[in-house]
Amino acid sequence: MMTRVDAAARPVLLRRGFALEYATLAWNVAGLVVLAVAAVAARSVALAGFGMDSLIEIGASVVVIRELSGGGEERRRGALRLLGAGFGLLALYLLAQSTFVLAVGFRPRPSALGTGWTAATAVVMFALAWGKARVGAALDDPVLRTEGRVTLVDGLLALAVLLGLVLNGVVGWWWADPAAGYVLVCYAVREVRDVLAAGRDRAAPAR
């Protein structure tokens, strides 16, 4: 049973959860525009791919906003399945992008806009992921905690893209970005497995 303190704190925590998700949504919508401009100007596959990743984060935020608005256990399990699908799409995107860049040896032009945005995105996503982890734990909400890991992956991906852009521009190591992408593929695949396992556990009847 929820204690009196918990009952009083829950509305505040829910408002924080909504604020975190709307902030994530707004940042990634803006990112679609900024990264599209930067990718075209630099002819950068990495920046274009990072813009596509923003779509996954937008979808994940929408899922969590719906879940925080209310719903039963079945709706929560459905939200976890959607987040698992989001991680799966992220893994496929990273695998395809990294393989393509390595295969063609594509070297983008330097992009001050792309470098600045990815650096800012890394900072913002790590801060949002930390907030979601804390609020999700306080609410005991697995969907918010899981989407927080999606946000963490987004921050790690921003660092990988940023590192690739810097190393390519400074020392000509064009392969640094796709190499980092493969590391993140392994992380995303692990998260798919964990999310699906959590969904099965919640679906299992209590004994």
Give a description of the structure.
It is a single chain. The protein is mainly alpha-helical and 207 residues long. 87% of the residues lie in helices and 0% in strands. The chain has one domain: Up-down Bundle (Alpha-lytic protease prodomain-like).
Layout of helices and strands:
Layout: H1 4-42, H2 45-68, H3 73-104, H4 112-139, H5 142-171, H6 176-203
Helix pairs in contact: 1-2, 1-4, 2-3, 2-5, 3-5, 3-6, 4-5, 5-6
Keywords: Cytoplasmic vesicle, Endosome, Membrane, Synapse, Transmembrane, Transmembrane helix, Zinc
GO molecular function, one term: monoatomic cation transmembrane transporter activity
Transmembrane segments: 20-41, 80-106, 112-131, 152-175
Quick recap:
This protein is an all-alpha fold.
- CATH topology description: Alpha-lytic protease prodomain-like
Shape: elongated
Total domain count:
1
The poorly predicted ranges are 1-5
CATH architectural label: Up-down Bundle
Number of strands: 0
Distance between the termini: 19 Å
Question: What is the CATH class name?
Answer: Mainly Alpha
**Percentage of helical residues?**
over 70%
Mean pLDDT: 83
Radius of gyration from the alpha-carbon trace, in angstroms: 18 Å
SS summary, helix count: 6
Helix/sheet category: mainly alpha
The run of helices and strands is HHHHHH
**What fraction of residues sit in β-strands?**
under 5%
Main pleated sheet: none
Could you name the key traits of this structure?
elongated; 0% strand; mainly alpha; 207 residues; disordered N terminus; single chain; Alpha-lytic protease prodomain-like
